[in-house]
Design goal:
This protein has 351 residues and is α/β, with parallel strands linked by helices. The chain contains 13 helices and 14 strands. It is globular and about 60 Å long.
Length: 351
């Protein structure tokens, strides 16, 4: 076991993939000489050379277009997008080409491309550097969409994504790049938890809390705080957004009878809506309360000084738990001694 940050675990996964398969190549802006904006690829170009770790122009569409061509020729490209908000110039390549190629060729062509994208806020950055575009890709048939929230998962899931013959959008919660934990770098992928499986990270009986990425840590803190008040929360790290491990989540909701979904992205048409709707359909007769979503607000990502008000935090998650438990405090209006002023009638206003 080795103590690694999440960023270091990603580097470990990339190094293993490069060493084990000569067809794996990395592409991205400043990933070679500079080691990437978050230093995830630091040292890999020196170790494997500029033909395996390729510095590209500042053109995300060109990066993905090149990756599609490489995949056609038998390579396994791993593309880095510097920030979540920079992926949109490559959206057409990903959605119109990459996701459709296997179906378009009647199964003759595989696209084993992994797209690494830092996800979400919490680092004091601006718009285009703190966005959560996961619902766009989870909605797109033909793509796997996954999110790693721990160093151990980062190391293993990235290797699994690269080994997959499907195109994988691999989200990395940037607020957790420096989270440190013990990592087993020698995990056998054949025995590891499959890429499309969720993980129950805390057992509980009173409500199920579903999260992914940067919100998993927040929800674990909420579970610890709730336990001090005698409330037992089961926390599930979803890990895969497409496909979703419905069996694991459904089994939990059937035990607890309550569901809270937490994510950073805006609530309107966010991924939490799909979780809530599907689980309502699957568990309707056992639900003790309507599912609750705790999300970012329906606004463009705010300036850094305001992001603490935008992102779900411990208090907002616990408030969501109180709502699903029917424990929301109703504040009574404060009585005053001053007499109420009568509201003038329309006739009096005319006078």
């Amino acid at each position: 076991m080795t103590m690694l940050t999440l960023g270091g675990a990603l580097r470990s996964g990339l190094r293993r993939a490069l060493a084990e398969d000569p067809d794996v190549v990395l592409l991205g802006e400043d990933i070679g000489v500079n080691g990437g904006v978050f230093r995830v690829t630091d040292g890999l170009q020196r170790e494997f050379g500029p033909r395996r770790v390729i510095d590209t122009p500042l053109a995300e569409s060109a990066i993905l277009g090149t990756a599609v061509g490489l995949a056609y020729r038998g390579f396994r490209p791993v593309c880095e997008i510097q920030f979540d908000g920079f992926v949109y110039p490559a959206f057409d390549q990903i959605v119109s080409q990459l996701a459709k190629m296997h179906s378009r060729t009647n199964g003759d062509v595989r696209m084993p491309i992994t797209i690494r994208i830092p996800l979400g806020g919490g680092i004091g950055a601006a718009e285009h550097h703190s966005e959560s575009p996961e619902a766009y890709f989870a909605h797109t048939a033909g793509l796997r969409t996954v999110v790693a929230s721990t160093p151990q998962d980062a190391a293993v899931m990235l290797r699994q994504a690269i080994a997959s013959d499907d195109p994988v959008v691999f989200f990395e919660p940037k607020r957790r790049y420096h989270v440190r934990a013990e990592v087993n770098e020698e995990v056998d992928l054949a025995t590891a938890l499959p890429l499309d499986r969720a993980r129950v990270v805390a057992r509980g009986t009173d409500a199920t809390v579903v999260a992914y990425g940067g919100m998993v840590g927040v929800c674990l803190d909420a579970a610890a705080a709730a336990a001090d008040e005698g409330v037992s929360l089961e926390v599930i790290d979803l890990r895969s957004l497409s496909p979703v491990d419905w069996d694991t989540v459904e089994a939990s909701v059937r035990r607890t009878g309550r569901l809270v979904v937490v994510h950073e992205a805006a609530g309107h048409a966010g991924f939490g809506a799909e979780i809530a709707a599907t689980l309502t359909g699957r568990c309707f007769e056992l639900l003790l309360a309507a599912p609750v979503r705790v999300t970012g607000h329906d606004i463009p990502y705010p300036v850094a000084k305001l992001e603490k008000h935008h992102l779900p935090d411990l208090d907002r998650v616990l408030h969501g738990v109180d709502r699903v438990l029917g424990r929301v405090l109703v504040v009574e209006p404060v009585e005053t001694t001053a007499p109420a002023r009568p509201v003038p009638s329309a006739r009096e206003l005319v006078r």
